[in-house]
Amino acid sequence: MGRTQIIACLIVGLWASGIVGCTKERPITVGSKNFTEQVILGEIVAQHLEHRLGRHVDRKLDLGGTMLAHQALINGDIDLYPEYTGTALATVLKLPPTHDPVAALALVRAEYQARFNVEWMDSLGFNNTFAMVIRGDDARKNKIAILSEAARYAPGWNLGVGYEFQQRSDGLAGLQKTYNLPLLGSPTTMDLGLLYRALEQRQVSMVVGNATDGQLSVLDVLVLQDDQHYFPPYDCVLAVRSAMLKDNPPLRMALTELAGLFTDLTMSKLNYQVDGEHRPVRQVAEQFLRDTGLHR
Questions:
Q1: CATH class belonging to 130-224
Q2: Can you say whether residue 46 is alpha, beta or left, with left for phi > 0 and alpha for psi between -120 and 50 degrees?
């Protein structure tokens, strides 16, 4: 073997071992739970990171429920995903709800770091808490804007709820203890996707939705203010493996740009674009990043 061939073999061997040449970076993997809002957020984060870091980002969106996404994060199958403070406290950490949003985030942040070596970034800016919703014409006619006023509405309410609301620790029993809404019979349970149709068709007069439901951005309805602060905060925050942040300093900078970028209404409109207008998630994410000025 000649000298040139020997040198070539050495270089190939060194490259293969990662000592010289371009070493392959471990890809960043963005995950999400299995509903529209989460998939949209996951795609927005992935596109933003690709744009800022100049590298491909793997996607594991639509993973499943809270514990499936959480376990994927802990196992290192994903590096980050959007989570909600109230959900983290109740479902993952098994702690009592905290009604102060600042205290809730501080507690979640400390517990996740200590238990899982996971860092919570700053809030994305919206709170996907429960929403008590009535028709706009009823709100205007009866001058009702807050839940305490709804509690004094003598004719009473036909309440429509999702299947879990009556069993949740932050659900119907606590709501009634706080407000004692005059309900006409037992609540009508139904699939979450049918709540607003039932409200429009006057099958019910009040529904329990979520603050970022897509229909809230297009229907003539009113979300009643939770003036007694019964519902805990569900601020949406990116939960990120600390090891990935440590190994990739630009990652933290890129994720920080997304903090505070969303409002409840912004998220509601994004959800409606996918669920109501049937636009592709990738297209909705691209447009959002352009509209916010992050991508040109």
A1: alpha beta
A2: alpha
Looking up tokens 């440590």, which residue turns up?
Answer: 246
- Tell me the C-alpha distance between 255 and 124, whole Å: 10
* Helix (H/G/I), strand (E/B), else coil: 186: coil
pLDDT at 170 > cutoff 50:
yes
Domain ranges (residues) in the chain: 25-128+233-291, 130-224
Q: Is 15 helix (H, G, I), strand (E, B) or coil?
A: helix
Cβ atoms of 29 and 50 within 8 Å: the answer is no
Contact 63, 34 (CB under 8 A): yes
With contact defined as beta carbons under 8 Å apart, do 120 and 105 qualify? yes
Q: Is the dihedral of CA 132, 133, 136, 138 positive or negative?
A: negative
What region, left, alpha or beta, does residue 22 occupy, with left being phi > 0 and alpha being psi -120 to 50 degrees? beta
In the predicted structure, residue 185 carries a pLDDT above the cut 70: yes
Fold match between domain 25-128+233-291 and domain 130-224: yes
Query: What is the CB neighbour count within 10 angstroms for residue 29?
Result: 20
CATH top-level class of 25-128+233-291: alpha beta
Q: What is the pLDDT of residues 2-22, one digit of tens each?
A: 554 444 444 444 434 333 433
